[in-house]
Each structure stands twice: as structure tokens, then as C-alpha cells.
């Protein structure tokens, strides 16, 4: 394995084939600009989509994936529970997961969070200003104090997620709402990052700052110490430790 | 509703009926000493057990429960998924949940955590010293620097839980292990506390310090602002906020 993580970009990839405005913005799918950017940055990238066999997330693909990014929207329910369990296990074993935008309602994100992950939203093309609230965090590297997305769907609080282990971005919207837009979690041996921007009707994944954050997140979420494959790893079950580390009298 | 929370003490309540050593320690069930202590402290208490209809957790019971305590061990798999969903929703709406000892593997705790909640275990009646690591926390009220449990089952790290939103206790074991024994979480509108002590073959729930912690935890976990029953609460679904709070040009 090289120093840079192997990334799999997962995309529902339905809007781009059915909705003309989305197809115009992303003729090769929303995964394409993300994959191209990360490849140009030197990462090993593959893509996977919902309508492939096993949603493109076979055991073999996951075994070669250090970080998975996830964009889904209208078809969360079509993701098979078996694949969700497979991804979940891989995250707990150490794989990074970057959940994008409407992926907040994906099965895998809800399973990892344990909450409903509901939020408020409005799609009128308003401006979003994304403030860095943790400038020391590697995911905000190179971003400056804030960046703007000219036209975005609004997401507003309350957002029903667990308290993030680190909060990196907070979005401001001209309609009056704010939103926790960059949230880090540690789950098992894996790292999870939720990143808000990315409604399909705006060219958000063509925007440089957004792509830069996704790259930062992929580097942050890469396994710190490889993927844990020990047969007695605690993500499976409780384990008898019959021999104390200190002698018991 | 009085100022003090209404508590439901839930217990699997099987080993007390089948295992003679457990029956001797807890002839009326492990829930009995907990319920009696909380009642003596002025709280409204009811008990519920696995073998009652709906495990004693009907809609009516939950609608009158501010904080639920949970002890299960061998029969987590017998808890009906529909009841788990009901309790989960109630927690996200604001009900407190105190998860005791072997319930780290209960369906409701795993559902709320999103991880496997595995750990290491050894049962040789060694000494446990429960250290207070957050003396400012209300759950540590009245405890001093630490308290001891003369004979306990050991639980050791790694413990596969999300990093707690607050860590109140860390246990030392004579055999050389440590364990995060008091873990606070905020989930939706609800508060969750995991408290480690309580193996069924030791008189742990007769010990005053342990009962005091459970009382402290119940008071902490009581809903801050009642139970959220708004029909548009975000624990159900995303909500379109068509009307911005500020006028959009």
C-alpha cells in the first residue's frame, strides 16, 4: 500500500441519468469530478455505483478500500442491508467513510450514528458561507477563514446527530439558519466525516474548495494503523481474558 | 409531573429464577434493590421485566417514563425488535436511559451507539476500584475520589463504543486492566449513561455507592425540557423549511 489512501467514490448515480438539469452539470455522474480531482492529487481511486452488482461494493473492492465516500439521495432504501452491514463492519475495522450531503439519510450513516439524522432543509438556491470553526484540524487545511458556495440547498438545525467528536465547519445561510457542516466521528477503528455541501442541482462538486475538503477528509479518514483483521477483534463479540496481566493473589 | 423523574427499572429477570447463587443474592430480582433505593429517595418507580407482555414496556408505560434503566445479560436476543424501536424513539424524543453492566450488548444500547460494543471480560471475583475522572459531573456527586467493589467481574479495554460525550468513571482492576465505566451520551433529545458495575453473582446492587451513582445518573438523564412530541420533530424525517427566517432577495 502506498502512503496515500486508496479511495472508493460511491454514488447513487440515478439523478444524473434521469434528470436533465443534473445530467447537464454532471454528464459522467457526480462521482466523476470527485474521482478525477483525487486522482490528480495522487490518490488511488475507483468508483462504485448503486446499480452495479453488490452496488460495486464487493468484499474484494472493500478489501482494497482505505476510504469510502458516499453520495446517495432518492434511493437510500434500495441499498441492500447486507452491503450496509459489510460497509459497517469495514468501518469499525478501520476504513474511513466520508458521507456527503444527502447521505445524512443513508442507511450506513444512520446505522453508525444511532440517531434519525433528520434536519431542516430548503432548496431555493441561496448562498452558503462555510466557516472554519477548527482551524487546527487537518480537514480545514488550506481553506482560510471561510469559503462560499454561490447557490446551494439549505440544511438547517436541529440536525439529529450525535455530538461530533470534532466539529470543523459551520454553515451560514442568508435565510437565517446555521448548520454543522463538517462533523468528525470515531467509530471502532474507523473515522467518519460528514460533509454537507453537494445538492445535485448545483455544480458544487466542480468547486475547488469543496474538492479540496473532500481530499483533506480522505487523508484524515485513512486508517491510522491499517485495517484491524484480528480474529479476536472486539467489534465481533465480548472476549474472555482469563489470564490477568498482573498476578491475582 | 413532580420535579423528580419517573423511573422504570427494567430487568431481564431470568437468572434470579434459574441460578441459585443469583437467587440468593437477589431473591426478588436485581431490579428490587434498585427500585427500593430510588423509591426511598423520593422518585416514582415502576419495574418491568422481559417475560411480561411487551416486556413491560407498553406505549402507556413509556409515555409515563422519564428515565429507563436497563439490565440484560443472556437473553438480549429475546427482546423484540419492535420494542427496541419504541424505546429508541422515546430516547431520541427525550427519555433518559441508564444502561447497566452486561447490557453493553443489549439491542437498544448497540442501536444507539452504532458500534458493536464489544469488550474483554474475566470473571474471577477480583477487586474493582472505580475512579472519578470528572468530579464536576453531577453523576459523580457524593463519591469522593473513588470507591471500591470488593468482588466483581472484570471488563477491560478495548471497549468498542463511540468516544463518550463525557467520561465520568474509569475502573482499575487488580489483574491490570482499565475500563471506561461511566460514559455519558447525548442522542437526539435524550441522555444515555452506561454504568459498568453489576455482575449478577456479586451483591453489587446492594452496595450504597453503586445505588447512589444510579440515582445520580437518573437525575442527570431526566429530560431537560420534557419529551419532544412535536409532529415535525426531526427524529422522524427531514423537514422542508420553505419559509426562511430572513427575507431572501
Fold and architecture overview:
The complex is a heterodimer of chains A (249) and B (249). With 249 residues, chain A is an alpha/beta fold. Chain A has a domain at 6-114 and 182-221: Class I glutamine amidotransferase (GATase) domain (Rossmann fold, 3-Layer(aba) Sandwich), CATH 3.40.50. Chain A is built from seven helices and ten strands. A nine-stranded mixed beta sheet of chain A has the order 2-1-3-4-9-8-7-5-6. In chain A, strand 7 and strand 8 form a beta hairpin. In chain A, helix 5 crosses helix 6 (107-113). The radius of gyration of chain A is 19 Å and the shape is globular. Chain A starts with 5 loop residues before the first strand and ends in a 9-residue tail after the last strand. Chain B is of the alpha/beta class. Chain B has a domain at 6-114 and 182-221: Class I glutamine amidotransferase (GATase) domain (Rossmann fold), CATH 3.40.50. Chain B has helices spanning 15-18, 20-25, 31-40, 59-63, 81-93, 107-113, 208-221; strands spanning 6-11, 44-49, 67-71, 96-100, 120-132, 146-156, 166-173, 178-187, 190-195, 239-240. A nine-stranded mixed beta sheet of chain B has the order 2-1-3-4-9-8-7-5-6. In chain B, helix 5 crosses helix 6. The radius of gyration of chain B is 19 Å and the shape is globular. At the A-B interface, helix 6, strand 5, strand 8 and strand 10 of A face helix 6, strand 5, strand 8 and strand 10 of B.
Amino acid at each position: 500500500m502506498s502512503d496515500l489512501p486508496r479511495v472508493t467514490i460511491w454514488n447513487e448515480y440515478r439523478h444524473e441519468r434521469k434528470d436533465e438539469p443534473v445530467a447537464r452539470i454532471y454528464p459522467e455522474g457526480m462521482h466523476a469530478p470527485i474521482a478525477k480531482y483525487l486522482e490528480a492529487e495522487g490518490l488511488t481511486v475507483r468508483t462504485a455505483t448503486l446499480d452495479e452488482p453488490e452496488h460495486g461494493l464487493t468484499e474484494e473492492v472493500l478489501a482494497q478500500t482505505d476510504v469510502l465516500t458516499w453520495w446517495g439521495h432518492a434511493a437510500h432504501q434500495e441499498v441492500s442491508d447486507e452491503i450496509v452491514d459489510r460497509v459497517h463492519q469495514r468501518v469499525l475495522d478501520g476504513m474511513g467513510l466520508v458521507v456527503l450531503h444527502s447521505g445524512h439519510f443513508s442507511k450506513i450513516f444512520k446505522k453508525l450514528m444511532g440517531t434519525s439524522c433528520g434536519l431542516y432543509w430548503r432548496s431555493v438556491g441561496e448562498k452558503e458561507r462555510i466557516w472554519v470553526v477548527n482551524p487546527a484540524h487537518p480537514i480545514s487545511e488550506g481553506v482560510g477563514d471561510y469559503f462560499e458556495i454561490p447557490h446551494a440547498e439549505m440544511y438547517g438545525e436541529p440536525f439529529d446527530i450525535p455530538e461530533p467528536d470534532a466539529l470543523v465547519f459551520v454553515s451560514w445561510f442568508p435565510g437565517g439558519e446555521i448548520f454543522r457542516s463538517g462533523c468528525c466521528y470515531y467509530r471502532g477503528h474507523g473515522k467518519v466525516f460528514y460533509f454537507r455541501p453537494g445538492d445535485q442541482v448545483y455544480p458544487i462538486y466542480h468547486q475547488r474548495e469543496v474538492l479540496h475538503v473532500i481530499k483533506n477528509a480522505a487523508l484524515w479518514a485513512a486508517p491510522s494503523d491499517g485495517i484491524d483483521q484480528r480474529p479476536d477483534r472486539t467489534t465481533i463479540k465480548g472476549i474472555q481474558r482469563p489470564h490477568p496481566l498482573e498476578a491475582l493473589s | 409531573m413532580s420535579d423528580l423523574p419517573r423511573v422504570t427499572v427494567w430487568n431481564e429477570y431470568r437468572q434470579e429464577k434459574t441460578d441459585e447463587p443469583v437467587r440468593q443474592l437477589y431473591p426478588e430480582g436485581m431490579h428490587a434493590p434498585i427500585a427500593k433505593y430510588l423509591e426511598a429517595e423520593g422518585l416514582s418507580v415502576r419495574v418491568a421485566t422481559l417475560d411480561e407482555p411487551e416486556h413491560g414496556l407498553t406505549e402507556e408505560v413509556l409515555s409515563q417514563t422519564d428515565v429507563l434503566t436497563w439490565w440484560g445479560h443472556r437473553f438480549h436476543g429475546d427482546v423484540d425488535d419492535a420494542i427496541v424501536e419504541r424505546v429508541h424513539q422515546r430516547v431520541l424524543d427525550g427519555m433518559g436511559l441508564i444502561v447497566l453492566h452486561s447490557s453493553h450488548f443489549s439491542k437498544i444500547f448497540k442501536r444507539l451507539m452504532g458500534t458493536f460494543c464489544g469488550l474483554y471480560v474475566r470473571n474471577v471475583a477480583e477487586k474493582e476500584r472505580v475512579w472519578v475522572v470528572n468530579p464536576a459531573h453531577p453523576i459523580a456527586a457524593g463519591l469522593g475520589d473513588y470507591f471500591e467493589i470488593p468482588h466483581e467481574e472484570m471488563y477491560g479495554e478495548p471497549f468498542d463504543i463511540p468516544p463518550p460525550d463525557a467520561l465520568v468513571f474509569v475502573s482499575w482492576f487488580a489483574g491490570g486492566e482499565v475500563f471506561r465505566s461511566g460514559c455519558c451520551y447525548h442522542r437526539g433529545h435524550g441522555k444515555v449513561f452506561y454504568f459498568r458495575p453489576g455482575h449478577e453473582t456479586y451483591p453489587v446492587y446492594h452496595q450504597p455507592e453503586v445505588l447512589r451513582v444510579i440515582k445520580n445518573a437518573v437525575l442527570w438523564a431526566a429530560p431537560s425540557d420534557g419529551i419532544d412530541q412535536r409532529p415535525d420533530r426531526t427524529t422522524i424525517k427531514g423537514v422542508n423549511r420553505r419559509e426562511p427566517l430572513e427575507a431572501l432577495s
